[in-house]
Amino acid sequence: MRKCIVGIAGILIRDDQGVLRDFISQEYIRCLEKAGAGVLILPVQKEIPEQIFAVCDGFLFPGGWDVEPSFYGQEKDPRVKETLGELDEFQLRLARAVLEKRKPLLATCRGCQILNVAMGGTLLQHIDGHEQTGERGGMAHRISVEKGSALHRMLGDGCEINSFHHQVIGQTAPGLTVSARAEDGVIEAVEICGYPYGIGVQWHPEVTYAKSEEMKEIFETFVAACESKI
């Protein structure tokens, strides 16, 4: 049997000469490989080839830039950091196509926010206290996980997570349910109702994959869902 393929939605970065380049962290790739998947990085593009959905068994939406507030009907708060409209357009279009085709989907940090916006939700453009400093692989705070959720079967009642964001889900989109919160009430994870595998987490499980059994479980269950689509 062939190895399942996970398509990772590309992120744009601007180099020191101002050139936009497609980029993805090796951390995502290594986690998926260790969980048993092959990886295809999907560059930011205006048209999404239909063949992508024949090749890819599941899709991962990674962390990255702030999301442009106009995509969820708001004026930009001055505390919003740099946004890239062409990146948002690509990822929102891709997310909606993935959802239509009911492919397994895992979204982290910005990806979790993109999932919510793609389905009709909004974001809080700035919150304080959720951008950790110091060691990248350190844990920032604890989350509580909703009993009965898919995430509860992976993480139990709660666990420690990292935190690198200043935006978060505001109004939850129709079709999404909250499955984890921080102690201050901030939404930390959502799940797509009645969907084969659709989870968004506000943290970066790929960063602590090597030392956290809970984070390994997220990637392993995602890849298992992708394998079931072969």
Shape annotation? globular
The CATH architecture classification is: 3-Layer(aba) Sandwich
Return the string of H and E elements. Answer: EEEHEHEHEHEEHEEEEEH
Q: State the separation between the terminal residues, measured CA to CA.
A: 9 Å
Give a count of the beta strands, DSSP E runs of length 2 or more: 13
Structure characterization notes:
- The chain has a single domain (5-227), classed as Class I glutamine amidotransferase (GATase) domain (Rossmann fold).
- 27% of the residues lie in helices and 24% in strands.
- The protein is built from six helices and 13 strands.
- It has helices at 26-34, 51-55, 85-101, 110-118, 150-155, 213-227; strands spanning 5-9, 11-14, 20-23, 38-42, 58-61, 105-108, 123-124, 141-145, 158-161, 168-169, 176-182, 187-192, 198-201.
- The protein has a nine-stranded mixed beta sheet, with helices on both faces. The chain has a two-stranded antiparallel sheet with strand order 2-3. Strands 7-10 form a two-stranded antiparallel sheet.
- The radius of gyration is 16 Å and the shape is globular.
- The chain starts with a strand and ends with a helix.
